[in-house]
Amino acid sequence: MNEAETEQRLRETLGVLAAGVTPDRDAYRKVAATWRWRELRRRLLALLLAAVIIVTAVVLGLWLLNRVAADEPVVFQGPAVAAGPWQ
Amino acid sequence: MTATENAGPIAGTAGADGGPKGGDMRSLRNRGLDLRDPEREAELTRLFDAHHHQLVRLAALLGAGGDAEDVVAEAFCDLYRRWNRLRDPAKAASYLRASVCNQVRMRHRHLAVVRRHPEPVRPDASSAEQEAVLREDQREVAAALLRLPDRQRQALVLRYWLDLGEREVAETMGISNGAVKSHTSRGMAALARSLEQRR
User: Fold this and answer.
1) Do A13 and B7 touch (CB under 8 A)?
2) Are B81 and A39 in contact (CB under 8 A)?
3) ipTM confidence score
4) How many angstroms separate the CA atoms of B47 and B61, rounded?
5) Nearest Cβ partner for A33 among B13, B28, B145
6) pTM over 0.90
7) Which of B168, B171, B147 is nearest to B159 (CA)?
8) Number of Cα atoms under 13 Å in the Cβ half of residue A11
9) What is the Cα–Cα distance from B137 to A83, expressed in whole angstroms?
10) Residue ranges in chain A modelled with pLDDT below 70
11) Is A47's Cβ below 8 Å from some Cβ in B?
12) A/B interface, count of CB pairs below 8 Å
């Protein structure tokens, strides 16, 4: 069997096989519902992650502030130096 | 019915991964969580109308069997997610073809793993229906095609059914032009050998 004959038979077979496949008429509705649902899920997860990060940062900050004694400097070390033209 | 006609509100259909029903989505939209990006939706709808049938057939020819619709649905969902990262929207069709090819190949790998375990794999009803419409010689070609390695089958289907050029086949399969030539010629040789033996 030569190559042209094989090619011809292959094209014919693929054509018949393809013609036998009937796509679902309702496919668009299902696919569109799926991609919208996934987009919603992705956005909700991103929102949840952002909320978790913010809450963690706030809780950590409050905990640190709560640990420091009232007369200890929180941000800068050493005695407070007043700045201004009156000194 | 085309996708454009179907583009109205979703009603009563759960997504493939158990997504919400139409009522849930409507209530979410009413609450101000409308997820539609009109431009992206319109482009995807146009692509769906133009390519869905062909992609389902491509998936079936590559051996996806009854999963052909799911494979194509996954490709569209993937494109929707990555739409903003797509460098050239004109290449969306090529991206969809490549996605379908990759997913069919992954499905075959998965089935190969499943077959190593004793659980029986159910025969594919849709491929049995397809077999029925083939002539005896075409049935031989179809059987020989299924015996080819994935890459060779993909190269032959893309080249001789979709009539893609070598460069386009290479783009779709993510390989070089030379590799496409090699897969195509080896595939054709194996096919011819297989058909000769059956004579």
Assistant:
1) no
2) yes
3) 0.71
4) 20
5) B13
6) no
7) B168
8) 10
9) 97
10) 1, 74-75, 78-87
11) no
12) 144
